[in-house]
Amino acid sequence: MTSLTDCQQRDAQDPLRSLRDQFSIPGGVIYLDGNSLGVLPKTAAARVAEVVTQEWGSGLIRSWNSAGWFEMPQRLGDKIARLIGAAPGEVVATDSTSINLYKVLSAALHIAAQDAPQRKLIVSERSNFPTDLYIAQALCAERGLRLQLVEPEEIPAALTPEVAVLMLTHVNYRTGAMHDMAAVTAAAHAAGALTVWDLAHSAGAVPVDLNAARADFSIGCGYKYLNGGPGAPAFVWVHPRHADRFWQPLAGWWGHAAPFEFTPGYRPAPGIARYLCGTQPMLSLAALECGLDTVLAAEPLGGMAALRAKSLALSDLFIELALQRCAGHGLGLATPRAHEQRGSQVCLTRTNPKAPDGASGAYAIVQALIARGVIGDFRAGDGDRHPDILRFGLTPLYLGFEDVWQAVEHLRQVLESGEWRRPEFNQKMAVT
Ligand SMILES: *Cc1c(COP(=O)(O)O)cnc(C)c1O
To answer: How many angstroms separate the Cα of 202 from the Cα of each of 101, 128, 252?
Structure first.
């Protein structure tokens, strides 16, 4: 069994250890929720203050030119591109993940309607993130289409000649299970369907190569593994073979070919710029850039491949320790053991045969851990196939092996002492 000393030795030998110094992490906290909100980069507060006092305060409207505000979505998009296998000029940082999904799913459906009007189905996963499913439902209602929800193993059989778009999240938010993007995209294309990939739990977490996979459309989140701050702008990528084929439906002036000609007719900008809508939030983009730079700082140390190797080592260790040290407390593993099927999080289930109402206790266990400074989160289930989840995000930029050891030790103590049964840990809050 791996000991605390082993973990400390692994930290001492970790070539990525210095990257942790880029962040302000509160004392006494082991942060296992970087998959929900990344931690604060040390540069962010000063950079945002500079944008407020100098670029806004002194530069005023001139800063759209002099401070490069107008090009921010493209400039940050080029930084994101380096993390997801996209080329410069193929990505913009803008709007939210939900809004960008509406744009790209509309575009995919429009292209499918032109090329194969008989295809009336969107296929997705039943346990996809709800906002993705809601946006798809809204588009189905708008266009007389149907959304078919399947389990991951049912995807190949679901790719019938009726399918217009296969819309998937690359790494599942509930289980951390990861799809083989290249293989699934190839299967979708062989069946005549387009693909939309949500990279919310992938960008900055696992290596992604959108162009090598020949994916069609992609979106992702700025505030999770990219550390861009609460509600940070998201991003959007469209394969160049599709980018000029369609006006996305939120055709605002920032996506116009010549916004400052102020002409009454819409003419889309070439390429990905047409996926912009209106004026972008400069303070938020400035903070997002600080977050992106924390991930790009790994490039000289091996980049996403090195981050991936450490992430897998951390999640392997978490799985090993949690199942050994907490044995007998009803914990199960929802995350795949196979490396190629795992994102950067470990998700546990819990069965609690003694509970009269069958409640898993997962929510209260997570609350008891948070009270001890071990911050993970809880995701409610909806039955046997999708049980309640205790979710632990493992961000290799700022977590070490000893952090994992200590987190599991707290979990063991919470379970063994039964302290999670205390009433205060069983009161549901608005955000879980
Ligand atoms: C986090 C997440 C989102 C978030 O969407 P917002 O528009 O930022 O609220 C969307 N999709 C997936 C798969 C996510 O994990």
So the answer is: 16, 14, 29
